[in-house]
Write a structure and sequence with these properties.
about 30% strand, about 170 residues, about 25% helix, alpha+beta, 3 helices, eight-stranded antiparallel sheet, Immunoglobulin-like
Length: about 170
């Protein structure tokens, strides 16, 4: 007596072809997602004029040295809502004449950076209004009129107060 062959099922009803195709299909799908994310997100860390920025480092160091020579130090206080800032600048007389500017620089997203022009307030302080920054770490840069001096430091939004000193004088 001969054995009767069992009827074969079509390939798409078998589990093995689907299991074998799942890994390559998932790799293609995730590759498409990565390409879309790469094209839509901003690469804030890359600058077009990196050579010019590298040359400007000496100018920045010179402004920090001028701040050190003037004995400048700035105490910066932020309001509870992080929408107002007050700067008390201590140092040699005449260093804080003219306009003073505070830059809030986000470490990775340049689109969130802010420039606050500070107005002279009572008692030799400077005050300004800003957009409440996103929570996290920020780099602060305080500059005098014409970029004659510069103070810089780091600030976490959980802190109400930060003191900026010339580089190398912490």
């Amino acid at each position: 007596m001969r054995a009767v062959p069992s009827p074969s099922r079509p390939w798409y009803r078998e589990p093995w072809p689907w299991l074998l195709m799942a890994a390559p299909a998932a790799a293609v799908a995730l590759g498409v997602v990565m390409v879309v994310l790469g094209l839509r997100s901003e690469d804030g860390l890359v600058v077009d004029d990196y050579y010019k920025r590298g040359l400007a480092i000496n100018q920045v160091l010179g402004r920090g040295a001028r701040a050190a020579a003037l004995g400048l130090e700035a105490a910066i206080e932020f309001s509870a809502g992080r929408d107002r800032v007050r700067v008390a600048l201590a140092g040699r007389a005449g260093a804080n004449d003219g306009a003073t500017m505070l830059r809030l620089v986000h470490p990775t997203r340049s689109g969130q950076d802010q420039i606050v022009v500070l107005a002279r307030g009572a008692g030799g302080t400077f005050e300004g209004v800003l957009r409440p920054p996103a929570a996290g770490a920020w780099h602060l840069v305080l500059e005098g009129e014409g970029g004659g001096w510069r103070l810089a430091g780091d600030w976490r939004t959980a802190e109400d107060r930060v003191v900026l000193r010339p580089a190398g004088h912490d």
